[in-house]
Design brief:
The protein is mainly alpha-helical. The protein is 57% helix and 5% strand. The chain has seven helices and two strands; from the N terminus they run H-H-H-E-E-H-H-H-H. The chain has a two-stranded antiparallel ribbon with strand order 1-2. Strand 1 and strand 2 form a beta hairpin. Helix 1 crosses helix 3, helix 1 packs across helix 4 and helix 1 packs across helix 6. The chain is elongated, with a radius of gyration of 18 Å. The N and C termini lie far apart (54 Å).
């Protein structure tokens, strides 16, 4: 069943943070933790899974961190939600074999359709559009602030 969890919200927030605050260097997890207040135990697990699924790229080394794996207009909130849902691996009550005919033939298909429509809607929201919202809300991008164009 589709439910919003802290892990899911933290993962979306982390990807948005990376997109919004990225400068010339990768974004380090400690910076995300500082800015967003996301507990590190959630953050590291989510970031590694997002790397494994091709949403982010992990950069090793002392100046390492995370970058988007694709342009921010090509990453949707739906992409992130699917990674977190797979990460959770909890049993879906819609998959339970027990129950009545009404449950199997009417209620469960209705919930599956609803879940699908939510994912379709989340696929239409890009990280780029969320960055635009952040900019319109007046949130200062640390990455842009730290860019130096001097030659």
């Amino acid at each position: 069943m589709f439910r919003v969890s802290k892990k899911m919200l933290f993962a979306i927030e982390a990807v948005l943070d990376i997109a919004y605050h990225a400068g010339s260097e990768p974004v380090q997890s400690r910076e995300i933790t500082r800015r967003q207040g996301i507990p590190r135990r959630y953050l590291e697990q989510a970031l590694q899974n997002l790397v494994r699924e091709g949403v982010l790229i992990g950069v090793r080394g002392p100046r390492g961190g995370y970058r988007l794996a694709r342009e921010r207009r090509r990453i949707s909130v739906g992409d992130i939600v699917r990674v977190v849902r797979a990460m959770d691996g909890s049993e879906d009550p819609l998959e339970d074999v027990g129950g009545s005919s009404l449950g199997h033939d009417v209620i469960r298909p209705m919930w599956l359709e609803l879940q699908q429509s939510v994912l379709v809607s989340l696929d239409e929201i890009t990280i780029d559009s969320l960055c635009t919202r952040a900019d319109e809300a007046g949130i200062v991008s640390e990455g842009r602030r730290n860019l130096d164009f001097t030659i």
